[in-house]
Specification:
Blueprint: E1 28-33, E2 42-47, H1 56-72
Antiparallel strand pairs: 1-2
């Protein structure tokens, strides 16, 4: 399992560096999803996040994303701790 929520990340136990890794706002993001058995890979590349300006549209998108995260990660013990929003 891999989860990344675009917030600073603590290294995994045993990782050589103990320094917190910065958020990863890239120019673009590529996602590859592997299915079971002979299921084909699904891959998509999307544009990176625009600079945060705090516009009403950005705030609304962030709130919608937080609601989706909270609903999706309700019982998840691995990725939910990365949540930067209210628990």
């Amino acid at each position: 399992m891999f989860c990344h929520s675009f917030v600073p990340q603590k290294p995994f136990p045993g990782y050589p560096s103990k320094a917190t890794r910065p958020a990863a706002p890239g120019d673009s993001y590529r996602f590859t999803i592997m299915g079971p058995g002979v299921t084909p890979l699904i891959q998509v590349e999307i544009p990176g996040l625009e600079a945060w300006r705090g516009t009403a549209e950005q705030v609304e998108a962030q709130q919608n994303g937080q609601r989706l995260w909270d609903a999706t990660m309700t019982d998840d013990r691995k990725c939910k701790p990365e949540n930067a929003g209210p628990s």
